[in-house]
Structure formats: structure tokens, C-alpha cells
């Protein structure tokens, strides 16, 4: 084969590869527009993030507002898919939702299965106990023999506390509001959560006391999650995250839901 023919074949192969990449790159958005809706996985028990309010019968939180804004930019309707931290990766992989938007910590283990956007919130862990607890006043009082610590199954707190606790016992809850019930009933001494959930607890329940984790701990960086292998879709999501930081929408919604202290504006 002559050099000219070889060169021509290389050019053809390049354009075929580029065309194939472009088709793959537009697949997720094409699916979304064909459906006419953005399917968003949320956990409806996440205060200030994606919470279903029984009083108003409406979803509320920063990621409810931001997911609606994202759907509007895509010019499609919004459809919420009930999920939780122990299931959202399966839901993404099975195509039940296009994206998970409910303050998900971008951990190393999760990155093995899903791709994450740029971060938009960052929170340390917090403990919730009863105000009248006989001896738990600070974080150093928690890791003692006889103390029972509750965590929600599938959350970052489950893996973090299983490694961190040396003396206290860990109990893993699966049902909505079970952590709160365990603590209030005395079956557990504390439960571990984050800033959004912790702030809502002390605003709603007069029995709840918030205990921050020691300053040496690394914060949890929250992002949106999508199924792996969709670089085009990830880029689109990142463009949205960048835009809401630049145009002030992240600031507006963070302040609305009292999350400004943990919002990442740059």
C-alpha cells in the first residue's frame, strides 16, 4: 500500500472514531430528550437536601431546587426516583435514574462504581445525642465501652465509624428516622450525621444536641453522581455545577436552606 493510501486510511479511521465518539457522547442527553424528562435519584429523608415535608406534601432542599434548575436548562420535565445511599449506585447502573442529586460524598469506594461531578458542598461529621445525656458532652466522650453509636446503612458514616471506633459499639439502621428513634428511646447514645441533617435536627427537635467532630477530621466533599463511562454527560453536569457557582444560584439556594457555611462557591 502506498504512503498516500495509508495516509488516506488513517484520515478515514480518525473521522470514523471521532463520529463514533460523538454518538456515544450525545447518548445520555438524547435519551433524556427522548423521554422528555430528567430522572433524578434522591433520598427523600435528607433534611435541607432532598426532604419530603409531610406538612406541605412537597419535596424541599437545595438539591430539589438545583435539580429543577438543571431540568429547566435541559428543557425537560423533572422526575424524582426514590433511592438512598445504600442503593443509588445500583439505581444508576440499572438506568433507573440519569443522575443522583442528594448530597453524596465522593468517596474512593464509590468512585470505583460511579463518576462524580465537581463538588458543591463540603461537611464534617457530627453527632446527635439527647441534651440530658448523663456523660456525652463532646466527641471524646463517644468512643467508650458501653456507648452505642447509630449510623445509617450505606452512608459514608457507616464505613468511617466502623474504622474509627475502638471501644464503642456500632449499630446500623435501615429504616427512615430509625437513628433518631434509637437515640431518643435510649437504645443508642448518639447517631452520626452531617451538617445539613444535624442543623435540621436541632431546629425541629428540642431534645436534640449537636456535637461537632474534632477539627482534625477531613471534610466530606459532596457531588452529583452518574453511571460510569459517560464523559459527555459528566461534562454537561460539571458545566451546570460551574454555572450555578458563577451566576449565584448555588449561593441563593444554599442560603435559603441554611447551608451557606458548607457550600463551595468556587
TrEMBL record:
Key word Glycoprotein present: no
Keywords: Membrane, Signal, Transmembrane, Transmembrane helix
Residue stretches in coiled coil: none
Transmembrane segments annotated in the record for this chain: 7-25
Superkingdom of origin: Bacteria
UniProt xrefs under Pfam families: SBP_bac_3
Residue ranges annotated for the Solute-binding protein family 3/N-terminal domain, each copy included: 37-261
UniProt family annotation: Belongs to the bacterial solute-binding protein 3 family.
Protein name, per record: Amino acid ABC transporter substrate-binding protein (PAAT family)
